[in-house]
Design a protein that fits this description.
Elements: H1 10-39, E1 43-50, E2 55-56, E3 61-69, E4 78-79, E5 87-90, E6 97-103, E7 106-119, E8 123-127, E9 131-137, E10 143-149, E11 153-158, E12 170-172, E13 175-181, E14 193-203, E15 221-225, E16 229-235, E17 238-251, E18 256-259, E19 262-268, E20 273-279, E21 282-285, H2 289-308, H3 314-339, H4 345-357, H5 361-379, H6 388-395, H7 398-412, H8 431-442
Parallel strand pairs: 2-11, 12-19
Antiparallel strand pairs: 1-3, 3-7, 4-9, 5-7, 6-7, 8-11, 9-10, 13-14, 14-17, 15-17, 16-17, 18-21, 19-20
Length: about 450
């Protein structure tokens, strides 16, 4: 074995040491030059809060950091990490606002950075100093890079007495809530899906600060919330937060369903007072459309008769009676004609398969409900039609019930989240439920008391 030894000459050692010392001196000189610019007031850093006082808990507080130089910036400015205890800290602006100003007879380049703070409680808050790395042009037009730090700041936040017993409130200058349904909530039928959309909008706050909608299970109706869509936008220093909550309701049993009233609280920073937004109770009903039309029509007729009975001649009154009778007959005939347009089971099966092939799953679910109703009434015209979910529970088949729940969740909720049903990790295709239905209805074990084999293939 050959031994190899490396012996450094004194000249080589001196060369390496001199190089390292040179690099260190360059770094020290750069830092020293940056500090010299600060001392000579050729480089400046300012930090301030907006607002600085009368701050309400959850209110947006802007931490402004301004860096300026008497020459120009030749590299990117980097802000260090900032954390404030019991406050949310967001860096919502990706870039600084660049500008210039005339100062002491010279043109200065200015960069303004804004970090938003959201105190989550009342009390005192400390904002630590932030290291800021800057690269500016020196007197010899060579880049000078160094780190400067902001001052430490403190502020106090208070919680008004009116908000002590309130939950999920926001402090802002504008807060709006818009509640909409995609169809009429009265006159629904079993299997129908109705979508509710609540849109929250507020100024000078963050979307994550807006209230979350609580959705509960409703007996006789499937409830399928989608993940909330949140969006933050900044336009010329104006901050806008938006949150959209979408819930799909599927009628599983005929009747009336009441969605409870909602109340949202917010503190108006302009008027310094508590304000509320009230969303009234919503009614979802499977009855009342045709019958209500007839009742309303007859009520209007009686009002007309009472008004003109004593003022019109007897002949005109008789003519009016004939006209009223004709109107009532037309309304009843139209209702009966509409009721007679229900599809036969064969037509429902055909439409169901076509809807599945075209991936119109909302239509397919409604048709599936109607088909089950036909089979129930075919066996016993006086039978009570129970929700499909209840039938599945009575079968005591957890696998098939899970298939149905996953079908409904994947149809109405992007997150497969269904109220009252645990999520499963394994994702099954849409037609799995159909295969289960076909197998159950054609097997020895009866699927339902009125079941029969039916081909629900997708191809």
């Amino acid at each position: 074995m050959t031994n190899i030894s490396l012996i450094a000459s004194p000249a080589l050692v001196r060369f390496v040491l001199c190089g390292l010392m040179g690099l260190c001196s360059l770094s020290v000189d750069a830092e020293s030059n940056i500090q010299t610019l600060l001392e000579n007031k050729k480089l400046a850093i300012n930090v301030w809060l907006e607002p600085a006082e009368d701050i309400i808990a959850t209110q947006q507080v802007n931490l402004n950091i301004e860096v300026s130089t008497h020459r120009w910036f030749v590299g990117g400015t980097q802000l260090g990490r900032l954390e404030v205890d019991n406050a949310i800290v967001l860096r919502r602006d990706a870039f600084a606002v660049n500008s210039s100003r005339r100062q002491a007879g010279e043109n200065w380049a200015v960069q303004l950075w804004t970090i938003t703070l959201y105190p989550q409680r009342s009390g005192s808050f400390n904002v630590p100093s932030i290291p800021v790395t800057v690269t500016v042009s020196g007197e010899d037009n060579q880049p000078m890079k160094g780190v400067i730090e902001t001052e430490m700041l403190t502020f106090n936040a208070v919680e008004p007495a009116e908000l002590k017993d309130k939950k999920d409130w926001v402090a802002t200058t504008l807060f709006e809530v818009n509640d909409q349904f995609d169809k009429d909530s009265v006159g629904l039928k079993k299997g129908d899906a109705i979508q509710r959309t609540l849109h929250f909008k507020a100024e000078n706050t963050a979307a994550m600060m807006l209230p979350e909608l609580s959705v509960n299970e409703i007996d006789g109706m499937g409830v399928y919330p989608k993940p909330a869509a949140i969006e933050d936008t900044v336009n010329r220093g104006e901050y806008l937060a938006e949150r959209t909550e979408t819930i799909n309701y599927v009628i599983e049993k005929e009747g009336e369903y009441r969605l409870p009233a909602l109340t949202f609280y917010w503190w108006d920073l302009n008027s310094s007072e508590l304000k509320t937004i009230d969303i009234p109770e919503r009614l979802l009903s499977t009855s009342g459309s045709a019958e209500s039309t007839i009742e309303d029509s007859l009520f209007s007729v009686e009002a007309i008769i009472d008004k003109f009975k004593n003022t019109m001649p007897i002949t005109a009154f008789l003519v009016l009676i004939l006209i009223v009778t004709g109107i009532a007959f037309t309304v009843v005939k139209r209702r009966n004609k509409t009721a007679g347009k229900c599809d036969t089971p064969k037509k429902l099966e055909k439409k169901f398969v076509e809807a599945c092939q075209q991936q119109h799953y909302l239509v397919a679910v409604s048709l599936l409900y109607q088909w089950f109703d036909h089979q129930a009434l075919a066996v016993d015209i006086g039978s009570t039609i129970e929700p499909i979910r209840q039938w599945l529970k009575e079968m005591d088949d957890q696998t098939l019930e899970a298939e149905f729940n996953e079908l409904m969740a994947s149809t109405f909720s992007e997150s497969s989240q269904v109220i009252g049903v645990a999520n499963t990790e394994e994702k099954r295709p849409f037609d799995t439920l159909l295969k289960q239905l076909k197998r159950r209805s054609s097997g020895r074990r009866r699927f339902l008391s009125y079941a029969r084999a039916v081909d629900l293939r997708l191809n």
